[in-house]
Amino acid sequence: MPNPLEWLENHGDVLYRTALLRVGKPDLAEDLVQETLLAAWQARDSFAGKSSESTWLVAILKRKIIDHFRRNWRQVDLPDGMETDDLVGDFKTTGEGVGHWKAERAPAEWGRNPEALLQNSQLKEVLGHCIDQLPESLSAIFVVREIDGMTTEEICKEFSLSPSNLWVTLHRARTRLRRCLEKNWFQQTATAPR
Amino acid sequence: MRQLLHKLMARFDKGCESVSRISSASLDRPLSLKERLEFYTHLFMCDFCRRYHRQLIAIQKLTSGITHDERGDQPTTPGLNEEARERIRRVIDPSAEH
């Protein structure tokens, strides 16, 4: 006979980390773990034992997270200023070279060895903070796409988004993350004393 | 010859802003022929957009790396603290239902 107290004991940490990685807030991650265990207890008869208990619980949790995102997510028609800041603020709008990078906003060199970057745990930590700082309208879409690997068709269906709105949302999220990493990691490490 | 090529390409070029959108879209869907032409001819000419594209790919791989680390044997974030565990225990304990 399954027991939610045993689930909490055996899988609580995995569930919590899975939730925290996606929602970024410890209190909310704890609430999602609790909701998941309650939902699993109510649906215990449906657990056929085809997957492991942990996989089954994580699947319920992921559904809860998507439901949370959907409840709180709204497609914000941002005022012109924010749109400008996110996507156009990096580019010249007047004079010579309209539509090209502004010198002060152009991408800096991140190093010649991108593979080395991928092993850097401190950099991943900074990226995690950058994701947490995204507004929920962007982070929800970025998380389901890049962390959960949902297809673009699935995301459009879940969030009632048109494909073109999805591309714009992902572009805005990536643009903000790129800028955040450049400011909080690459500029910091470039100026740090060696 | 190179200058002539650049001039020719520049005539069809819509600029870095347009290419940054295509760069992000390329991570989510196959590009149309028109987009591919615009994208690759522009990258040939523009160091900044090449960097931008490499950086978006790096962000995608780093994000995937974070996910992988969390699932591994040595996750970097702590688990549930005892206070939260106790609070959840009180709510989910089936023997406390009645």
Architecture overview:
The complex is a heterodimer of chains A (194) and B (98). Chain A has 194 residues and is mainly alpha-helical. Chain A is built from 9 helices and no strands. Chain A has helices at 4-23, 26-42, 53-72, 80-88, 114-118, 121-133, 136-147, 152-159, 163-191. In chain A, helix 1 (4-23) packs across helix 3 (53-72), helix 3 packs antiparallel against helix 7 and helix 7 packs across helix 9 (163-191). Chain A is elongated. The model of chain A is unreliable at 77-82 (pLDDT under 50). Chain B has a domain at 2-66. Chain B contains 5 helices and no strands. Chain B has helices at 2-12, 16-25, 33-45, 47-71, 82-92. The interface between A and B is large, with 57 and 47 residues.
Mean pLDDT of chain B: 86
The amount of beta strand of chain A, in percent, is under 5%
- How far apart are the first and last residues' alpha carbons of chain A, in Å? 59 Å
SSE pattern of chain B, N- to C-terminal: HHHHH
How far apart are the termini of chain B? 85 Å
Number of E strands of chain B: 0
Count of DSSP strands of chain A: 0
Shape descriptor of chain A: elongated
The main β sheet of chain A shows up as: none
Low-confidence stretches of chain A: 77-82
Q: Number of helical runs of chain B?
A: 5
Helices of chain A, by number, come to 9
How much helix, percentage-wise, in residues of chain A?
Answer: 55-70%
What proportion strand of chain B? Answer: under 5%
Rg of chain A, alpha carbons: 20 Å
